[in-house]
Specification:
single chain, mainly beta, three-stranded parallel sheet
Length: 104
């Protein structure tokens, strides 16, 4: 299934199978997803501000080409790290197809 160029903010999804679905250019702001199968779902150019996911299957799900489970793994590693003595200035974080410049 493809869901393209829609605006469905503040939607609530419960116990839905979205396996293999492609979301492109969608507004899902403030939506809630509970018990959703997102297996192998692809999400790109989607407003997911304040979206809540709970009890969802995220296996193979990608956002902007990055596996969501890899994002969680990286986040957990960073959370456990101590960066209190580090200083950062003008460096790039390489992301697939869209590097973003970080400045002080």
């Amino acid at each position: 299934m493809e869901i393209i160029e829609k605006s469905i903010p503040s939607s609530k999804f419960d116990d839905v199978n979205l396996e293999g679905t492609t979301f492109n250019n969608i507004n899902l702001k403030n939506s809630i997803f509970t018990d959703i199968n997102f297996e192998n779902t692809k999400i790109s150019n989607v407003n997911m501000a304040n979206v809540e996911l709970s009890d969802c299957n995220l296996s193979g799900m990608t956002i902007e080409g990055i596996l969501v489970l890899d994002m969680f793994e990286a986040y957990n590693k960073l959370r456990e790290s101590d960066f209190t003595e580090n200083r950062y200035r003008d460096f790039l974080i390489p992301l697939p197809q869209s590097p973003r410049k970080i400045t002080e």
